[in-house]
């Protein structure tokens, strides 16, 4: 469902699909480890303002997936964002606000913060 998405060596990965041994000698970053990331900070703000969080179960995975889309400049349109979030499910079905929040954060992200 994508809720457990983390970064492994900087790339998004589903934690539930990885054996712990596969993470040996690799850097694993959860959303808690990204508190100082400017794109995540922008996403937290836009998720809050756009009411893109209902129960919050999907939110950590959504934030990490959205950050990756923005960094790769793959959040330029609603269709692109929806395609990029295809692996992240929101049980509360709050996709409209989630997509709007990501579009807002993407538009506010300077090009220098993307890859
Ligand atoms: Fe409840 Fe997405 S906010 S699952």
Description of the structure:
39% of the residues lie in helices and 9% in strands. It has 115 residues and is mainly alpha-helical. Strand 1 (5-8) and strand 2 form a beta hairpin. Helix 1 crosses helix 2 and helix 1 packs across helix 4. The longest helix has 13 residues, at 59-71. It is globular, with a radius of gyration of 13 Å. The model has no long low-confidence stretch (mean pLDDT 96). FE2/S2 (inorganic) cluster is lined by residues 53-58, 90-92, 94.
What order do the helices and strands follow?
A: EEEHHHH
Our count of helices gives: 4
Strand order of the largest sheet: 2-1-3
Shape verdict: globular
Q: How much is the radius of gyration in Å? A: 13 Å
Structural class call reads mainly alpha
Query: Can you give the mean pLDDT?
Result: 96
Number of strands: 3
What distance separates the N and C termini? 26 Å
Q: How would a textbook summarize the main sheet?
A: 3 strands, antiparallel
